[in-house]
């Protein structure tokens, strides 16, 4: 074979997904005065509530520390500038210490040294081309103001406004991005309700709400002051906003109760401040007003614990932000299952009435995308600046090689790109928290968030960049995320597969067994078709001998053992077990063969994962109508019962059907699989009905009669192609992509895995309508009865998912296709981009991000079911065992799968490589080869040779991670940057 080396970088295959940050998008890092400055009583600074609380409590923080010195940033401005320059940030978000400028809090005594300190900081930033983004209040309230009532006193509004006025006068000509407050929920609720933060008051259910009320008014008046007196004065470009902490709340179950509980949690924690400022109606969220009022009543308060705004105040607050500053760290699952006996009454926790817990893996970034989408819809697409996002690690566990933090940033920034490009959310910038390790409030110095490590035992407080600092710097300079970027002297960071995750590989009976008419086996539709019409197969071949696996149990199990797989997925040949298709005669030799295979696997500790039907229907059953006839439902259940009786004692993992789309659409509508029928828009749907009902009845009978120990698990395997809009900005293309997914994938999944059951409603509607238009007296899509819908719903313990590639889709017009047709019913035309690297099979392309997107889609559509990837693989031509392109495919697809687990929170428990062996590839005969092992099909003995990919797969299984540089002994390293061109033999 001629080998052309073409200069196509493999990574380019992901182009469509590798969004770049828009050119005007800005990156920054954040800090806060009290957390870094130190110099607590130096340079004329006054005492603040944190100084006071930490000086007057022996041990308020986790390590009994305070921030008297913190990072000593008050003395180390040049060091801080250096870090900011090295990172290459566009802006630096820091806060001004109120008591450094106004030691007594009130405006009557200004501290010139404090004022000068911030002038120096701001000027130094501007000289270096770094924009100052200034927080006016980041929790360090001057002590005197605390003693006159603190934030619970509405009179503090005026004190804050006069402080703000001074800041605008001093710095307004050079600071053009301001935020009034950082995270009012946190300092109000923790400072005045739970006592977790200074001033450590615990007026639960009362103090926090009073504080929030003052803060909202102080914010609004400050905003108005800036608009009226300073904005024009300073050239009109200045913007002023507020920073709110947000955490998405996802219902545990998609029930009305859990949804309501999640929404309440979101409104109390985020809507509390977002709604009065950003909503059209203004005021607190209705659920807060109503709940707190009702609970206050029950608790015998004379008035609601939540203060109310006058209409004038509502109007004053509404719209007072040029952007929304959002701090985001993690997401929560919430349910209505709330035990109020375990909480303080009154309290906000009790007012919310939801049971929330954080997501287990904090790299899971999907919640940010949901919250951004929510903000867009709810608050009319405001401008958003992410003012904080970062990853905290216990000091003892944190290291300069902080892969966990690096993965966190990669994950969240990836999600942010999706929010920007796919959801059209108006995010203008991103702030990593934090520039350096610092004083982490009640955790003291026991938690680190920094891109730079700070040694707090050294009086010089030296700063050292962590891996994440280099990675973040690389994202800023390249404006995109490169998961495999590794700074000098570091390896790339990768995820490892969870301990309980299992690996396997797969085959199917007709593709490997051979022995087509041996020992009493009956004829199936593939035997019949390939014998009567050999020309339909590309190489005029058939599965008569195939890999001869029927005779090679021992050898194959040994190869599986070498591979190190946890399980082997294979299918049973119906006509080897029931030669005539009916259960009136069971072929003992067929039973013996499978017993031998199952026992040999179990003896080696390999779990059998058995597919009941992988396309080789007994020919006699085709002759009574095949899968288009509902009679097949009971005949399939009969067959399945024979299987359960004979093998169910040892086999506990079952797949009823492999790829109903291929059985039905390709077999009965598209002339692309046996029996090669062409009833487009009709045959495929009749078949779908039968197959789905056969699945559901089999599941029911298995559960009720054969799974008494409840160890057995059963699912169905559906082939899914990610449908991506051809033009991401076109609503029509987006709609077409979704419609295609429902028609191709959802048609088999929705009846089983969705909450409401039945075929996807949009698809039913469309086929019913088109059938009527076409003059059919009935819909071409069969109807399930309510009883059938209920039987199907939930009839699986996991979702089997085969995946190979991605499509680009656009809306299909009526004159572009024939009718009736499944394509027209799906409303989309889909194709594969020439940009993508192709396998030998034209339907396989290297598009790993599509795999991840489809896994995420499954999670969203069907409430995060357990997913078993039952097939995934890459085809080549010829017998070259140095199969670098296959290795690359496995590496990048498994990498995408890890991201789906860790970043998207998908519940994926198993992965199956297709295929264990090169085999009979259906209509393409022996030309297109998917195997981890090569077979010489010219040798009657069908000898097997392990390909390089089988060693790489074994290495992944044993090390539980992807190592692109792994080269098995005896092979030359792969150069993944160049794709050797393949030629069709
Ligand atoms: C089983 O039933 C089929 C269909 O009626 C029949 O053709 C076949 O001869 C029967 N086989 C045996 C062994 O009875």
Automatic annotation (TrEMBL):
Keyword Metal-binding: no
Residues of the active site: 871 (nucleophile)
Signal peptide residues on this chain, from the entry's feature table: 1-16
Keywords, comma-separated and alphabetical: Glycoprotein, Glycosidase, Hydrolase, Signal
Domain of life of the organism encoding this protein: Eukaryota
One BP annotation, GO: carbohydrate metabolic process
EC number from the UniProt entry: 3.2.1.21
Assembly notes: Homodimer.
Membership in a protein family: Belongs to the glycosyl hydrolase 1 family.
PANTHER family: GLYCOSYL HYDROLASE (PTHR10353), LP05116P (PTHR10353:SF36)
Record's protein name: beta-glucosidase
Source organism of the structure: Popillia japonica
């Amino acid at each position: 074979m001629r080998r052309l080396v073409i200069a196509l970088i493999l990574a380019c295959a992901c182009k469509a997904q590798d969004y770049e940050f828009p050119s005007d998008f800005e990156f920054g890092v954040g800090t806060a005065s009290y957390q870094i400055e130190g110099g607590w009583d130096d340079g004329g600074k006054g005492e603040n509530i944190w100084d006071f609380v930490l000086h007057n409590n022996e041990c308020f923080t986790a390590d009994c520390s305070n921030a008297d010195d913190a990072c000593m940033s008050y003395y180390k401005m040049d060091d801080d500038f250096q870090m900011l320059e090295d990172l290459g940030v566009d802006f630096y978000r820091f806060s001004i210490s109120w008591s450094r400028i106004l030691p007594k809090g009130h405006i009557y005594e200004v501290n010139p040294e404090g004022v000068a300190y911030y002038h120096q900081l701001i000027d130094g930033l501007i000289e270096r081309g770094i924009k100052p983004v200034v927080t006016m209040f980041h929790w360090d309230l001057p002590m005197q103001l605390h003693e006159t009532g603190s934030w619970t006193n509405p009179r503090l509004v005026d004190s804050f406004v006069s402080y703000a006025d001074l800041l605008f006068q001093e710095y307004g000509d050079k600071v053009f991005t301001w935020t009034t407050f950082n995270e009012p929920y946190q300092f109000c609720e923790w400072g005045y309700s739970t006592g977790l933060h200074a001033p450590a008051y615990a007026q639960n259910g009362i103090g926090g709400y009073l504080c929030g009320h003052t803060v909202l008014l102080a914010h609004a008046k400050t905003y108005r002051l800036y608009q009226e007196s300073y904005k024009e004065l300073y050239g009109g470009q200045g913007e002023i906003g507020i920073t709110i902490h947000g955490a998405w709340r996802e219902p545990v179950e998609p029930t009305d109760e859990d949804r309501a509980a999640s929404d309440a949690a979101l409104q109390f924690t985020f809507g509390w401040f977002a709604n009065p400022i950003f909503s059209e109606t203004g005021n607190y969220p209705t659920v807060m007003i109503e709940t707190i009022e009702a609970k206050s009543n029950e608790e015998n308060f004379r008035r609601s614990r939540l203060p109310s705004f006058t209409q004038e105040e509502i109007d004053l607050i509404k719209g007072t932000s040029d952007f929304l500053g959002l701090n985001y760290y993690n997401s929560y699952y919430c349910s209505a299952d709330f035990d109020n006996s375990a909480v303080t009454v009154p309290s906000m926790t009790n007012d919310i009435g939801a049971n929330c817990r954080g997501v287990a893996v904090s790299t899971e970034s999907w919640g940010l995308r949901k919250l951004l989408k929510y903000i867009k819809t709810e608050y009319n697409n405001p401008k958003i600046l992410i003012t904080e996002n970062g990853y905290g690690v216990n000091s003892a566990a944190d290291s300069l090689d902080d892969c966990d933090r690096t993965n966190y940033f990669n994950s969240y920034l990836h999600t942010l790109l999706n929010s920007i490009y796919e959801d059209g959310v108006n995010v203008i910038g991103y702030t990593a928290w934090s520039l350096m390790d610092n004083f982490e409030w009640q955790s003291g110095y026991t938690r680190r968030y920094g891109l730079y490590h700070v040694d707090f035992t050294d009086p010089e407080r030296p700063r050292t960049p962590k891996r994440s600092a280099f990675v973040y710097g690389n994202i800023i300079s390249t404006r995109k995320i490169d998961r495999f970027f590794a700074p000098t002297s570091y390896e790339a960071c990768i995820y490892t597969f969870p301990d309980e995750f299992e690996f396997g590989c797969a085959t199917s009976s007709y593709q490997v067994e051979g022995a087509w008419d041996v020992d009493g086996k009956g004829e199936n539709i593939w035997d019949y078709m390939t014998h009567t019409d050999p020309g339909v197969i590309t190489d005029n071949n058939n599965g008569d001998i195939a890999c001869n696996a029927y005779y090679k149990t021992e050898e194959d199990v040994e190869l599986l053992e070498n591979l190190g797989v946890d399980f082997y997925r294979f299918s049973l040949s119906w006509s080897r077990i029931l030669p005539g298709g009916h259960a009136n005669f069971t072929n003992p030799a067929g039973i013996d063969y499978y017993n031998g295979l199952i026992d040999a696997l179990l003896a080696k500790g390999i779990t059998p994962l058995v597919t009941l039907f992988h396309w080789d229907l007994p020919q006699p059953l085709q002759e009574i109508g095949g899968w288009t006839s509902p009679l097949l439902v009971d005949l399939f259940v009969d067959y399945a019962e024979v299987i359960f009786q004979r093998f169910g004692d040892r086999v506990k993992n079952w797949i009823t059907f492999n790829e109903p789309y291929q059985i039905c659409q390709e077999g009965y509508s598209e002339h692309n699989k046996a029996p090669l029928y062409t009833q487009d828009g009709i045959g495929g749907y009749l078949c779908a009905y039968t197959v789905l009902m056969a699945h559901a009845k089999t599941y029911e009978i298995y559960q009720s009669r054969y799974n008494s120990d409840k160890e057995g698990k059963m699912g169905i395997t559906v082939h899914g192609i990610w449908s991506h809009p051809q033009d991401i900005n076109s609503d029509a293309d987006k709609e077409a992509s979704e419609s295609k997914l429902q028609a191709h994938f959802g048609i088999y999944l929705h009846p089983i895995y969705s909450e409401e059951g039945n075929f996807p409603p949009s698809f039913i509607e469309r086929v019913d309508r088109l059938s009527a238009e076409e003059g059919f007296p009935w819909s071409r899509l069969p109807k399930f009865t309510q009883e059938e819908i209920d039987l199907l719903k939930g009839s699986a313990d996991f979702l089997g998912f085969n995946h190979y590639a991605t499509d680009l889709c656009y809306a299909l017009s009526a004159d572009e296709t024939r009718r009736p047709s499944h394509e027209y019913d799906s409303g989309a035309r889909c194709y594969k981009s020439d940009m993508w690297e192709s396998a030998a099979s034209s339907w396989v392309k290297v598009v790993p991000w599509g795999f991840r997107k489809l896994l995420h889609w499954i999670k969203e559509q069907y409430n995060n079911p357990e997913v078993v990837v039952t097939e995934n693989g890459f085809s080549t031509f010829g017998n070259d065992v140095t199969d670098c392109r296959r290795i690359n495919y496995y590496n990048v697809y498994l990498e995408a799968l890890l991201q789906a687990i860790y970043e998207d929170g998908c519940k994926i428990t198993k992965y199956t490589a297709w295929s264990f062996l090169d085999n009979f590839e259906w209509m393409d005969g022996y030309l297109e080869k998917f195997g981890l092992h090569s077979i010489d099909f010219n040798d009657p003995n069908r000898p097997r040779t392990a390909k390089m990919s089988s060693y790489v797969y074994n290495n992944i299984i044993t090390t539980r991670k992807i190592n692109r540089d792994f080269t098995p002994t005896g092979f030359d390293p792969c150069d993944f940057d160049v794709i050797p061109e393949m030629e069709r033999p």
